[in-house]
Write a structure and sequence with these properties.
The protein is an all-alpha fold. The chain has six helices and no strands. The relative contact order is 0.14.
Length: about 150
Amino acid sequence: MNLRNLPTRLAVGAFVLHSGIEKWSGDEGTAQALHGMASGTYPVLKDLKPTTFFSALSAGEVAVGAALLAPVVSPTVAGAALTGFSGGLMGLYWNTPGLRKPGTPWPTQDGLGVSKDVWMLGIGVGLLLDGLTRGAKKSAKKVLPSS
């Protein structure tokens, strides 16, 4: 793990891990509400039982949070996991009616909570790019003689 990524990975990893752990013991009403919202945007989820969806979401958050916190997980892998997870949230935000002001990317009051997850997308892409470019820099050093 790169030292410069440590604060970001700790903050986001702890946040996402905690969210997943909290969902693990969530109630059926919450599961139904989240499943309804998600399956409206992602129709493939309609066939899942709300509790199954909720458990899978919880497990996914725990896995992403743990990957961010584990120093043995490369920034490329951690960034890809966070980018995929937060990309799904941004798809939910973008495609769920009533979360955005019409014709704009700006949130309504109802969409504010989901729109804030854009920070995770930015962090995930940043980690991914850092990991990919760090590998490219190492390769370039091997090919190009130092002066």
